[in-house]
Structures are given as C-alpha cells and as structure tokens.
Amino acid sequence: MNAEKKREALQQRASYAREILEGRNLPELDALLDKITRFNELNPGLSEEKAVEALEGFERRLGAFEELNDGKLTAMDKVRIVRHPQRVSLKDILENVYDNYNEIGGQDEHSIDPGMVIARAYVTRRKGKKVINQPVMVVGQEKGHGEEFRNGGSIKPWGNYKALKYMEVAARENIPVHAYVNTPGSYPVEDFPGAAQQIAENIYEMCGLTVPVVAIFSEGGSGGAEAIGMADKRLMFSHGYYSVISPEGAAAIEGRIRPPQRASRELIEKCASAQQITAQDNLRNGYIDEIIQEPPLGARAESFDFYKTLRQRVIRATDEVALSVRGIRLLRGLAMRLYRKDPDIIVRWDLSERARHRLVQRRHKKYRRMAQHAFKDQRTMLEKLSAARSGFISNTYSVMRYGIVKPLQDRVARLVDEVTDEVHVVTGKLTSIGNRVKGLAGMGKSGDSQVEKELTGLSAPGKPAAIIETTREYISPQAKSDREVTCPHAAKRGCLDIWARDLFNDYGGVCPHCGYHFPMEYQWFLANVFDENSIVEFNENISAGNPTGFPNFDERIDAAKEKTGQQSSCVTFHAKLEGMRLTCGMLTAPFRGGSVGAAEGEKLIRALELAQKKHQPFLAYVHGTAGIRIQEGVNGLIQMPRVTMAVRNYIEAGGLYIVLYDTNSYAGPVASFLGCSPYQYAVRSSRLGFAGPGVIKETTGLDIPPDYHNCFRALSRGHIQGIWDRRDARKNLHQAFLTIGGRNLYYR
Fold first, then answer.
1. pTM for this model (two decimals)
2. Which DSSP state fits 483?
3. Cα–Cα distance, 667 to 688 (Å, whole number)
4. Dihedral sign, CA of 182, 187, 191, 197?
5. 542: which residues sit within 8 A by CB, 6+ positions away?
6. What does the pLDDT look like over 186-237, one tens digit per residue?
7. Closest alpha carbon to 683 in 723, 720, 710, 715
8. What is the C-alpha separation between 724 and 683, in angstroms, rounded?
9. Are the C-beta atoms of 79 and 272 separated by less than 8 Å?
10. Whole-angstrom Cα distance, residue 248 to residue 295?
11. Low-confidence residues of the chain, pLDDT below 50?
12. CA 526 to CA 571: how far, in whole Å?
C-alpha cells in the first residue's frame, strides 16, 4: 500500500473512532486525526518510504487508542457501532464466510424487499483428502453500506414473508438455516398481510422448523429481530445489541416526549444502559448462547480476521445442534465430548426423522427455561404443592382418558361404523325390493303420504329456543356519574347525547344510534360472558417485577399492583360458557396498559399447558395491550417466541385457540402469540396493529389516516375473522366454540 492510500485508510479509521465516541473529550484522538488529515501539508517533500514509516507510527498509536477505549464502550456506543455505515453487512459475510453462494428471492433493489437477503450458500470442509460441501440457507436483514433502498434493514411484511418461505424450503431440503439479525425493527406497515400478522406467522412456523437454526445477532431490534431470530443456537457479536425498543424510543416513552421534541443525550444513555441490551447482558440473562468477539470498536467490512472467527463459530454452532439430537442419547454425549477435543471432526448436518422430532422438542425446552429469573413467584409452598398435585392429576387423567381409553373407543367406533355400513347396504337392498312388491300390491300409500307431509309441510311452532342472557349484575363506575356523554361520531352521524348511567349500564357502553363502542372495564366482560360463579382464577401470585433494575420502575409496578389489586396485567382462570368448560388468559389495560413482561408470559404459558392437560379450549381475551413492557428489556421481548411456542404446542396437540380483541391492542403480543391464532375476532370500535400512530410518526415520519388501525381494516386484510358487538360477545363466543370446536371442543 502506498503512502497516500495508507493515509486515507488511517484517516477513515480515526474519523470512524471519533464518530463512535461522539460527545467525549478526546484530545489525543483529535490531535492524531488532525495530524493524519494534514500529513502531506505538515511533511512536504517526504519520500515514499519515510512517509509510510511515519504513517505506521500513527497506525500503532491509533491501534493502542482503540484497544484502550474498546473496554470503556457504553451501551449507546455499541448502538452507534451497529448503526454505522462501515459496519460489517450480510453481503460482506456471504463473500468472506461462505465458500460459494447464490442469492435468491430477488437481488438488490429488484427484490420484493431489498432489506431482506436470502442466499443458498455452501460451506466446504476438508479433513485430510476428504472434502464435503455442506449446503445452508442464509437469511438476514441487509443494511448495506449507505444503500438507501435497503431501508436501513427495517423489513416490511413481504420481506419477512420471503424469509419464512425460504426457511420452509430449507426444512423441506433438510439443510440448516443461518439467520443474521441486523435490524432496528420491522417497518410498521398494516397493508396486507400486515407487519404484526406476518411476524406472528414467522415466529409460529420457526417454532416447528425441523432443521438446525443458528441465529447471529448484530442489531436485534424488537419484533423485527424475532421474525427470524428463533433458533437452536443464538450467537451475538460482542459489540451488538438486542433490545425490545431503541434507546431513543425508550427515552421518549420514559420522558413522555412527543415529536418534534427530542430526548436528551443523558436520558438516552441512561435508558440504553438500564435496558441491559448488550451482548454481555444478554449472555448473563440467558437469551444468547455465545459471544463472538469483534475487533476493537467493532467489525467493519475490511475486518478479515473477524470473518475467520465468525466462520469457525457458526460452523461449530451448527455442528453442536446436529450432534445434540442425533443418535442414541449415550452416544450423543460421547460424540459431543469427542467433538470438543477435536473440533476438526466433520459433522453431517442432515437429520433423520427422529432427530428432527427431537430437535423441535429440544427447542421448546430451551425457550421454556428462559426468563425464569425475571418474575416473582409469590405463591406459598402450600399453593405450589397444590398446583403440582393438580397438574399431576390432570396429566394422569389426560394420559388415561385420551392416551388409552379414547383411542380404544375410536377403534371400536370405527369397527361399529364399518359393520353398520355393510349392514345398511344389505338391508337397503332388501328394503328396495320390499317397496317394489308393496307398490305392485297397492300397499304403503298412507305411510308415504305421511313421510311426504313431514318433508314438505311447514313445521309447527314449538318451544322457543333459550335466549342467551347478555346482561348481568355489574355496574360500571362510569355509570355512577350523573352526566351526559357525547358520541365521538355525533357531528357526522347525528347521535344524541346519552346519560352516562344509561350508556354504561343498559347499553353496555354502546351508542344506541351509531353503534360506537366506548371503552368498558374488563369486569364487564367477566360478568356478562361467563356463567355465573364459574370463574376460578389460578397463578394469581405470579408477580411482575423489575428484572433489569430499571430506575424508579419498582415504585411504578407497586403503584399498579395497589391500584388494580392485580400482581400483573395477565389474569388466568378456568370458567364455563353455557356449561362449556374453558381456560382463559386475559390481558387487562388498567395494569400498565396491559403490557407484557416475564410474569405475564409465564402465566400464559402455564395456562396453555394446563388447558392442554385438561383438554379444554383456550380463550385469549385482550381487554387492551400496549405491547411488551420496555423497562424489562429482553426479559419482556423474549415472551414473544416463548408464548408462541406454547401456543403452537397447544394447537398441534389439537387445542382450540380463540383470540378476542377489545379497545386498543398493539405491538409484540399482537405480533406473536395473539396474531398466530387462526381464529381472531375483535369488538367493534377496537383498534389493533403493529405500532401505534405515535411510534409510526416517530420511526417513519409518516402521518397515518385516523382509521389506519380500525378493526374493519384489520378484517379486510384478513388479520381478524369477524367483528362483534360487545353485547353479543357471549352469544358469539358460544357459537364460535360450537362451530369451530365441534362436539369435542378440544380435538379437531
């Protein structure tokens, strides 16, 4: 390298360090950058050899500076590293980590979504004279280096669809998936299929992928990361971050700041640190398995030694996943020990049918173990023993009733049906011959006329069908106020003012003129939908906490508990609906906006597991949810794949899972364990989607129309399957359970 090229490379490197460490007083770096920039001016007439020698001295000084400051990086410094245009990109990795690759699903701007890159790649491995080419499907978000058409790695719904499509191709071809997560978050588009709905589908299907999945995190932003991040092994770059929301977004929420105002640098730094977003934080909390060490101040396109390290770690992770599910358990343990002694052993990545089944089971156990430290289990020892006893009894009954007795009953029933069909064929033939004989003899006319009358005549009025009761003894606090209420649509639709006691009592919070639904308390739903005295709550003492130690958040959680009388925003209970037994998980808006954290996720998982043991249908009633609780960081975010995994297990076992949305439902829960249900309904006037209007404005700069999240728009794009009047919820749920669940309610 000649002197001028070396000087330019050093100048770029020093400028990069200055940008990463912005806002700090670094006189040594500033002086070095000035000397490099003005090198030719300060050293006129210097020979090429002497110039290179002088620049090498600057390079050593710059290297020492980078080493020194690398250990002092804050969480926000690492955020700046992953956002920098010089950051290593997926195309760089494909070129330098894999031996050959072919991009599929479109290229660059000529793609369904240029931010999502898919490639069929090969890893060539040699052991002596033996050469093996192992195929792999690489999916990942691509920012490029300042390529605007890639939208900064912020993926639209069709980009996530593309990723899912080719992950499923990998499963059919029995080849591993390497998922590179490098996104600030998904683009909040509610056009078909909708951001939330597509992320939910991605997570649901990734739960059951029957090939090894290795995820490598650089920038893991919220639901965008989870869309391709569920994996058997999760690796993370040492200077990356993985978070429920960007530090700026967290600061805006904490400081209650609205555009065009901006949060202060101090508040942003504070939120970045408090959310525990770094690789080291996530390894300690158990949400990643390994850290891949980067060069000082982060890996860039020219970090060629880093590519070697990355290749070794990714191959090793894929090997370990394959070995962990292959063969007999005793031999698997022996193989793992031998592999650790000799990492050059070549492991085949294609799996047998049994190994693929074990892989999915192992993935479920992995996610089930996560976040156990992040909630408070305040149950007494007696309550825990009682819950264990109840679970054991339910499990034993389930095995006996549905594992032994029911298959035997089904076998006998099938045999009886087959014999009956054969008898019907014979008797039908004999009956036909008999009818002909009777016809010839002039017999049987009175009987025929009676049959004809029954088939063609009008039915006599009988006893009227029972009317499902829709009003119970629950008085809304809003009905106690002696005032008139104006409907929001009064100016447009001419609605008259209504007395509060009439509106929130007799009318169930529904405008009698236009049908607009005013928000009602979740207690109204409990009183008016389920059979009287049938609700039995469980796990009420699993309590929300502050696992990240977020500043001043303990007080806010305690205040929510005192105000609502709940330990979390999730209430789980057994109930009856027209005598039908079911299990319900309910998110309640009064508790921190119905936000979901580790406690809520754990309660929902336990409720789904219990419903599966008891063979009961499951209802998720969303009184309202603002998304994942940002103060819990990844402890909250990880509930998206965790609960979705539980939902998938329940549905795959034959469970009937119905979701009903009320008021406002946004973000992570809708983009995961709620949005993956095949049967979703909404109460009229509710709003649902991926991101609220304020978040969309902040992240995209776009002003959205007022009806953007309206439930009718969600219905039109297929997100939900129906819209109900609140007063008909009991009747409609009963009808849905009967028609969808059928006679057995649980098993399809």
1. 0.87
2. S
3. 9
4. positive
5. 375, 376, 377, 378, 379, 567, 568, 599, 602, 603, 606
6. 888 888 888 999 999 999 999 999 999 999 999 988 888 999 999 999 999 9
7. 723
8. 5
9. yes
10. 26
11. 455-456, 461-471, 748
12. 11
CA distance 653 to 651: 5
Centre a 10 Å sphere on the Cβ of residue 521 and count the other Cβ atoms it contains.
18
* pLDDT reported for residue 128: 74
Cα–Cα nearest to 136, from 125, 116, 122:
122
The answer to whether the beta carbons of residues 597 and 668 sit under 8 Å apart is: no
How are beta strands 233-243 and 213-221 bridged, if at all? Answer: parallel
- Total count of residues recorded for the chain: 748
Question: Bridge partners of 582?
Answer: 575
Tokens 């992928």 -> residue: 209
Give dist(CA 598, CA 613) in Å, integer: 23
Do the Cβ atoms of 604 and 572 come closer than 8 Å?
Answer: yes
The span from the CA of 719 to the CA of 736, in Å, is: 17
Amino acid at 608: L
Q: Give the H or E element holding residue 420.
A: helix 406-441
Q: Across-strand partners of 660?
A: 621, 681
Residue reference for tokens 């101090």: 266
Which has the closest alpha carbon to 468: 737, 104, 688, 158?
Answer: 737
Identify the pLDDT of residue 148: 87
For residues 546 and 549, what is the distance between their CA atoms, to the nearest angstrom?
5
Contact 82, 219 (CB under 8 A): yes
Q: Do domains 83-369 and 518-741 have the same CATH topology?
A: yes
The pLDDT assigned to 466 comes to 37
260 preceded by a cis bond (ω within 30 of 0): yes
pLDDT of residue 416: 82
Please report which residue ranges of 90-143 form alpha helices under DSSP H: 90-97
- Count of CB atoms within 10 A of residue 242's CB? 28
Q: Could you tell me which CATH number the domain at 518-741 has?
A: 3.90.226.10
The token pair that represents 259 in the structure block: 């555009």
pLDDT at res. 467: 34
Contact of 504 with 511, CB cutoff 8 Å: no
Q: What are the sequence ranges of the domains in the chain?
A: 3-72, 83-369, 518-741
Written as six digits, the tokens of 45 are 């007439």
Closest Cα partner for 216 from 180, 173, 166? 180
CATH of domain 83-369: 3.90.226.10
- CA-based max dimension of the chain: 130
Q: Which of 395, 600, 621, 611 is nearest to 523 (CA)?
A: 621
Burial 682-713 (b: 16+ CB within 10 A, else e): bbbbbbbbbbbbebbbbbeeeebeeebbbbeb
193 with 299: CB under 8 angstroms? no
- Residue 503 near residue 518, CB atoms below 8 Å: yes
Spatial distance between the Cα atoms of 686 and 711, rounded to a whole number of angstroms: 6
d(CA 577, CA 666): 28
